[in-house]
Design goal:
Its EC number is 5.4.99.-. By secondary structure, the protein is an alpha+beta fold. It is built from seven helices and 17 strands. Strand 8 and strand 9 form a beta hairpin. The model has no long low-confidence stretch (mean pLDDT 90).
Amino acid sequence: MNERLQKVIAHAGVASRRKAEKLITAGHVKVNDEVVKELGTKVSAKDIVKVDEVPISKEAPVYYLLYKPRGVITAVSDDKHRKTVVDILKEVPQRIYPVGRLDYDTSGLLLLTNDGDLDNRLTHPRYEVEKTYVAKVKGIVSNDDLKQLRTGVVIDHRKTAKAKTKLIRTNQESSIVSLTIHEGRNHQVKNMFEKIGHPVEKLSRETYGFLDLHGLQPGEYRKLRPHEVEELKTLAITDTKR
């Protein structure tokens, strides 16, 4: 059976499907020793596919949940030689990569896999996976502030979707707030709090869909259980548009 080239690369654990598309159009991919830049190209099991002259091989899909610590890059490599999330999982033999991203100074739940299809679906805007963050922010957050977050604030000329909020505690200098969103714009949580006048001082992602950090400390990780993988796949094929 013939499959699209970017899908084959993603299945091999080389990169996510969107990253594979960029590799193809940039001329990094060869099929049977010929450079291919067309995204619609289909290949069969008999074709030899190379990325940067390295033949790809089909790997069994693996799925990991990491408690990302602060001060670690959400990437496979870093040109500034900073520690990456993949460095933490260096004992994993497969070529895995993070699903989505967390900022350098943000901790919390991060998925890593070599399943390009699942990564593509989980990070696609159409599939609204809820993520809960706990933020320490400057100042005393009021009910009106929380209402703004719940109804949506305008960032870069576009209003955020409705969110769920909970004020955990507050003092004269700062507040701890739980915020649940299903969008995934860059720096969205920080930008939302900035918009209401409460800059983030500390941020952690506590849940991703039904998954949480129970039993893990920062820097620790575990394999997803088979039933968790199946539930994630179900989550990724269910269009939950609100």
